[in-house]
Amino acid sequence: MTIQNLRYIIEIARCHSISKAAKSLFMTQSAISNAVKETEAELGIQIFNRTSHGVTLTFDGEDFLPYCKEIVAKMDYIQNRYQNRSSARMNFSVSCQYLPFAVRAYRIFLSALFSLFHLFHKKQVSSCLFSLLHR
Question: Which residues does the UniProt record annotate as the domain HTH lysR-type (predicted)?
């Protein structure tokens, strides 16, 4: 059983038809049908009742579908959360009642950040950290 098979099952249940699901997924009907049969054989259940008018979920299918949706949703969440990490924006904010202290802290932070960035290329990060920590 694969995540892709679960996606197929969700789409078939949504469309109430293997052929309509195949069209919406840009696949052949036989490929989707084989994927579902493979999943059914692996689990030992029948997910769909197949008729000439489409498909309906069996009792086991009704029970299985919410788990499919949950698994697929969690996989999508994980992929979105961790695959797009390199393009994630980093935010920095300061909230303080005593503004001069906040401004001074922000200046020190930026100064340290820029110093580390420039010294990193010269491999002098450790000495920079030492000097910043002992101000």
Answer: 1-58
* Cα torsion 21, 22, 25, 26: sign: negative
Query: Token pair of 89, please?
Result: 């924006």
* CA 78 distance to own-chain centroid: 3
* Six-digit token string for 50: 């197949």
What's the pTM? 0.61
Record the tokens describing residue 130, joined without a space.
Answer: 């030492």
For range 84-96, the mean pLDDT = 62
Is residue 35 within 8 Å of 66, Cβ to Cβ?
no
Cβ distance 18 to 29 under 8 Å? yes
Q: What are phi and psi of 53, to 5 degrees?
A: -100, 5
Q: pLDDT, tens digit, for every residue of 39-71? A: 999 999 999 999 888 999 999 999 999 999 999
What gap in Å lies between CA 96 and CA 76, rounded to an integer? Answer: 38
Q: Please list, residue by residue across 86-114, b when 16 or more beta carbons sit within 10 angstroms of its beta carbon and e when fewer do.
A: eeeeeeeeeeeeeeeeeeeeeeeeeebee
